[in-house]
């Protein structure tokens, strides 16, 4: 397994992974699958902003998972905080891929002098919460019944990690 920067040719596989999660899980709080055009626009937007889109690939270069981060909230005071996401093919889970993707994202965030990484997770997603806690994130808040999907209320859980040494923000 190799982690590398995603290329345009990987976008259909990224889309397939995301749409599988839309159909079958509460990782994304929507039932609307994306189109290839929408994912390509998202990918190009990330590239223009010099934001990472990573893929984990096997020895045949098939995509096993992807991860990315982007702005947490639009106002400029949040510019040193990013929100990330990680998706791994169900057939490839529990093999360290989610961990490897998230560790690489953290390295990139550190290199960009970002200060905080935030994950926004369904409170029932034990796998994602466990992954984040293993990598030093802590549960920073829980909004009970903030969402709904598949006829259930969903709690919104924020996991956060302060990166690097404590530093004063530039003015
Ligand atoms: C969450 C997710 C990314 C984890 O990816 P993964 O490749 O299976 O995780 P890893 O194999 O790297 O696991 C790393 C650690 O996370 C924890 N973990 C992962 N899956 C777990 C599970 N199902 N139950 C409990 N702990 C789990 C474990 O501590 C694990 O370490 P260990 O295997 O040494 O015990 C994956 O389950 C996934 O893609 N889920 C659907 C999409 C999603 O929920 N994304 C997160 C939203 S940001």
From TrEMBL:
<dbReference type="InterPro" id="IPR016181">
    <property type="entry name" value="Acyl_CoA_acyltransferase"/>
</dbReference>
<feature type="domain" description="N-acetyltransferase">
    <location>
        <begin position="1"/>
        <end position="159"/>
    </location>
</feature>
<dbReference type="InterPro" id="IPR000182">
    <property type="entry name" value="GNAT_dom"/>
</dbReference>
<protein>
    <submittedName>
        <fullName>Phosphinothricin N-acetyltransferase, putative</fullName>
    </submittedName>
</protein>
<keyword id="KW-0012">Acyltransferase</keyword>
<dbReference type="GO" id="GO:0016747">
    <property type="term" value="F:acyltransferase activity, transferring groups other than amino-acyl groups"/>
</dbReference>
<keyword id="KW-0808">Transferase</keyword>
<dbReference type="Pfam" id="PF00583">
    <property type="entry name" value="Acetyltransf_1"/>
</dbReference>
